[in-house]
Amino acid sequence: MSGASRVAAISVGSNSLLIALKLVVGLVTGSVSILAEAIHSSIDLLAAVIAFFGLRAAGKPADREHPFGHGKWENVSGSVEAVLIFVAAIWIIYEAVKKIMHGVEVELLGWGIAVMAVSVIVNTLVSRNLFKQAKIHDSIALEADGQHLRTDVITSLGVLVGLALVQFTGLKILDPIIAIGVALIIVKAAWDILRKSFGGIIDTGLPPEEEKIIIDTLAEHKSQLVDFHEIRTRKSGAERFADLHLVMPGTLSVDEAHKMCDHLEADLKRRLPRLEITLHVEPCDDSCKSCEMSCDSRRSG
C-alpha cells in the first residue's frame, strides 16, 4: 500500500467512528443538525473510500491500453465525490425545512455538544495530515478528501455553537436553521471540488504559474534556440503533460538538436516533477533576425 493510500485509509477509519457517534446521538436527541452532520460525515466516508480506490487505480503504471497512465482516476474520484456532496446537501435542506414546518423537538443536547466537539478535534487533525500528504503526492483525491473534512470541521463548529445556543436560549428552531446553513457550506465545497476535478477530465491546461515555469525555462535557453511556439499542456492526476514546437538554427546537426532537447527536458522535469514533455524540432530557414542572432551567439561561444 502506497503512502497516499495509507493516508486515505486513516481517513476512512476516523470517518467511520464519527458517523456511528453522530447517528446514535442524533437519533437520541432528535437534532436534525446532528443528523445532517451524520449524513455529511457519511458522504465524507464514501468520498474517502472512493479516494482510496481512486489512488490505487491512479498509481498503476502505464500499459498498452493506457499509454498515458491511469492518473485521471483521481479526477474521476474527485468528481464523483462532489456529486455525492451535492446530493447530501439537498437531503439536509429537505429534512430541515420539514422540521421548521412541523415543529422541532430536541433533547439531551449535552451529548450532541460533546460529539460535535470530538468531531471538530479529530477532523482537524486528520484534514491537516490529508492536505500535507496531498501536497507531497500532488494528489487531487487526497486534496478533495481533506477539503471534505475541513468543511466538516466548519460545519461541526457551527452545529456545536448552535446546540449551545439552543441549550441556553430554548429556541429549538435554531437547530434546523443551522442545518440549512451546514447544507449551504457543503454546496460551496462540492462546487469547488467539482470544478477542479472535472477540469482534469476535459484536459484543462496546467495552472498559469506552471505554464510560466515552462516558458521561463525555454527563455533561459534563447541563446541556443531561435524560438518556441504551440505550447499545449494538461494534467492527469499527479502527472503533467506538455508538448511544444522548438525552432532551432538550421545549421545544427541531428545529434546537436537531440542533445539540446535532452538538456531542455532535464531542466523542465527538475522544475516540474512528473512532467512528460514532447518536443517537435523545426529548422529555421536562416532568413529571420532571431535565427541570425542565435547562430552568431553559437559561433561566438
Notable features of this structure?
Cation_efflux_TMD_sf, single chain, 301 residues, Alpha-Beta Plaits, 10% strand, CDF_Transporter, disordered C terminus, mainly alpha, elongated, Alpha-lytic protease prodomain-like, zinc efflux antiporter activity, Cation_efflux, ferrous iron transmembrane transporter activity, 3-stranded mixed sheet
Could you please describe the fold and organization of this structure?
With 301 residues, the chain is mainly alpha-helical. 71% of the residues lie in helices and 10% in strands. The protein has 2 domains: 3-201, Cation efflux protein transmembrane domain (Alpha-lytic protease prodomain-like); 208-300, Alpha-Beta Plaits, CATH 3.30.70.1350. The protein is built from 9 helices and 3 strands. The protein has a 3-stranded mixed beta sheet. Helix 1 (3-29) packs antiparallel against helix 4 and helix 2 (32-58) packs antiparallel against helix 3. The longest helix has 31 residues, at 72-102. The protein starts with a helix and ends with a helix. Its main location: membrane. It holds the Pfam family Cation_efflux.
Set down the secondary structure blueprint:
Blueprint: H1 3-29, H2 32-58, H3 72-102, H4 109-137, H5 140-169, H6 174-201, H7 208-219, E1 227-236, E2 239-248, H8 254-271, E3 275-283, H9 289-300
Parallel strand pairs: 2-3
Antiparallel strand pairs: 1-2
Note the gap between the termini. 51 Å
Counting structural domains, the number is: 2
Q: Tell me the CATH superfamily of the largest domain.
A: Cation efflux protein transmembrane domain
Going across the biggest sheet, name each strand in turn.
1-2-3
Approximate helicity band? over 70%
Enter the CATH topology name of the largest domain.
Alpha-lytic protease prodomain-like
Rough outline: elongated
Q: Averaged pLDDT, please?
A: 77
Portion in beta strands? 5-15%
How many whole angstroms does the radius of gyration measure? 26 Å
- Sketch the topology as an H/E string, one letter per element: HHHHHHHEEHEH
Tell me the number of helical segments per DSSP (H or I, 4 or more residues long). Answer: 9
* Total number of strands: 3
CATH class of the largest domain: Mainly Alpha
| Low-confidence region ranges | 293-301
Structural class: mainly alpha
Biggest sheet, open or closed, and with what strands and sense? 3 strands, mixed
CATH 2nd-level architecture of the largest domain: Up-down Bundle
